[in-house]
Amino acid sequence: MRNLPRRRAHASACALLAVTLTTIGIAQAQNAPAPKPAAPAAAPAGKIDNGGVLFKKVGCYQCHANEAQGGLSGPRIGPALFPWARFLDYTRKPSGEMPPYSAKVLTDQDVADIYAWVNARPRPPAVNSLPQLAP
User: Fold this and answer.
1) What SS3 class is residue 106?
2) What's the predicted TM-score (pTM) here?
């Protein structure tokens, strides 16, 4: 029985240590910098010529027009409007009326070829350079 106060003191000290370490751990976790998001994946090397063929073959031109500049049914998709990961993701799982192009229809390499072709299109002229729209 004589060791009972010593045991209580030891138990109290252990409890205090546990609470302190937990508090320090929580504080450090709250002050820790947020993990950096993964760097976006770079587009695989695409073959521009093949991308142009595929753009027409699978019907992209029907909505996005012949130079991916946008048409009545689809928006302008190039050049350099979307990062590769977003382009691929939307091609696979579109949210609008665009049909999904699964990997069975277009491989990732096919999509990369189309992406390369779209990004090789000339940029549209500045609006103020068009005579019809000049003040």
Assistant:
1) coil
2) 0.66
Tokens (6 digits) for 85: 């990961």
Q: How far is CA 49 from CA 44, 99, 105, in A?
A: 15, 23, 19
Report the C-alpha gap between 69 and 59 in whole angstroms.
Answer: 14
Tokens linked to 91: 């091609």
Fold of 48-124: Cytochrome Bc1 Complex; Chain D, domain 2 (1.10.760)
Q: Where are the domains of the chain?
A: 48-124
**Within its chain, how far is the Cα of 134 from the centroid?**
37
DSSP letter, residue 96 = S
Dump pLDDT digits (tens) for 1-38. 555 555 555 555 555 445 444 555 555 555 656 555 44
Contacts from 84-89 at CB under 8 Å and sequence distance 24+? 84/40, 84/41, 84/42, 84/43, 84/112, 84/115, 85/40, 85/41, 87/43, 87/111, 87/115, 87/118, 88/112, 88/115
Q: Which pLDDT tens digit goes with each residue over 51-103?
A: 999 999 999 999 999 999 999 899 999 898 999 999 999 999 999 899 999 99
